[in-house]
Amino acid sequence: MTWRLEITHKTRYQYQEPVYSSYNEVRMIPRSGGNQLLLSSLVNVSPRATLYTYRDYFGTAVTAFDFHRVHDHLEITAESHVEVRNYSGPSSEVSWDFIGSEAIQDDFAEHLMVTPYTTVSADQASEIRDLVRGQSTPIDGLNRAIEWITEHLSYQSGITSVQSSAADALAVGLGVCQDFSHATTAALRASGIPARYVSGYLFPGRDPIVGESSIGESHAWVEVWLGRWIGIDTSNAVERTDQRYVAVAKGRDYSDVPPFKGIYFGGQSSTPFVTVTITRRQ
């Protein structure tokens, strides 16, 4: 099944005092490739600025802009149309010998490395590795890793922060999609399975009415390489992502994919106001 989705993502900062200059970049344009095709995209900012778009190291579209005049707010609106089809999973089963071969481990070294966000304790890494590698195939190992994560983490907002690592979330047993994704990535990498962090959008319903808008959300999940990349979402107990998931950015962890980041000189800003609206057009 294929869906055509219209996505509007708005982020607004209101500054309590004047801001004199700022440098910013956003990752809000969906990717093309795999099971999705970007049909059109447009990013607008207020106050008006000259926008520059480039691809980062991991192939994500980045829109950069800066201000050198006094302003009291920043509003970013990204509109896109994307076609997403359901994903059937791997075409063939791969073996542990294949995943562990020198060529594969070298090719996917960046998606096997431990990062500050994907750190877990030595005891946890050993436990996970034994459980996952004890399965007969990498697919079975992946499913065991998913079970381990859902046994050790429950979804609850307000406990962790954007700076929290997998180890932080596992220590309290609670977290949000970012924490589930970091913990899942850590578990798979500890077992020698390449994994990468994905940020994007999640359509909230399974059977939306064409033309009816829904409040969507920015979301994070994981892609695992088992002969080809497979999407999984442990925060929603989804073993294979489908056409509800629209990928924007991919990388080693959250630090490679933030939707917005920047620096500015001036007054303190308020908490950002963020809305995501998704409409199925076909």
From TrEMBL:
It comes from the Bacteria. Residues 169-236 form the Transglutaminase-like domain. InterPro entries: Bac_transglu_N, Papain-like_cys_pep_sf, Transglutaminase-like. This is Transglutaminase-like superfamily protein. It comes from Acidithrix ferrooxidans.
